[in-house]
UniProtKB/TrEMBL annotation:
Secretion signal span: 1-21
Gene Ontology terms, MF aspect: dystroglycan binding
Pfam families (alphabetical): Thioredoxin_7
Protein name in the entry: AGR2 protein
Family listed: Belongs to the AGR family.
InterPro entries tied to this protein: AGR/TXD, Thioredoxin-like_sf
UniProt keyword annotations, A-Z: Endoplasmic reticulum, Secreted, Signal
Species: Sylvia borin
Chief localisation class: endoplasmic reticulum
Subcellular location: Endoplasmic reticulum; Secreted
Gene name tied to this protein: Agr2
PANTHER family named among the record's database cross-references: ANTERIOR GRADIENT PROTEIN 2 HOMOLOG (PTHR15337:SF1), ANTERIOR GRADIENT PROTEIN-RELATED (PTHR15337)
Length: 173
């Protein structure tokens, strides 16, 4: 009888230690997801403290419902022009401040919406969309062959275009 209770006691101990191990495993994975890591990864370096949307659909939805303009940046991680623009954009204090007034999205892939490539699928390109979900063809960069392209040297033009997008909102809506 003694032996039998010893075995069942041992089995009980094993069961308890397995359950504890399972719990601690679960707790770890929960901790990592609980941390607000999203903005960092979604920013892809364009402004880690800014709030970025995950998809074009989400950006449109939020733009429409918040009455804020959308700013969409198409870029590629291995494109030196994209990298150069990203660097000046992220380091430009006034732009980072102004960007808080926009619904923001940066994409490393093309959307199926042809409106986002009015004159081609080049990168980097930056488009503004107002809350009526109209792509603002009137807010462009300085290049006639690539209307929505910006070089790092055009950062002040991009800044004034951001101001323009916000002004249009006040006058038109």
């Amino acid at each position: 009888a003694m032996e039998k209770s010893f075995v069942s006691m041992l089995l009980l101990l094993i069961a308890i230690s397995c359950a504890l191990a399972k719990d601690t495993g679960k707790k770890d994975s929960k901790d990592t997801t609980a941390k607000p890591k999203l903005p960092q990864t979604l920013s892809r370096g364009w402004g880690d403290q800014l709030i970025w949307t995950q998809t074009y659909e989400e950006a449109l939805f939020r733009g429409k419902h918040s009455q804020k303009p959308l700013m969409i940046i198409h870029h590629l991680e291995d494109c030196p022009h994209s990298q150069a623009l990203k660097k000046v954009f992220a380091e430009h204090k006034d732009i980072q401040k102004l960007a808080e007034k926009f619904i923001l999205l940066n994409l490393v892939y093309e959307t199926t919406d042809k409106n986002l490539a009015p004159d081609g699928q080049y990168v980097p390109r930056v488009l503004f969309i107002d809350p009526s979900l109209t792509v603002r063809a009137d807010i462009t960069g300085r290049y006639s062959n690539r209307l929505y392209a910006y070089e790092p040297s055009d950062i002040s033009l991009l800044y004034s275009n951001m101001q323009k997008a916000l002004k249009l909102l006040k006058t038109e809506l």
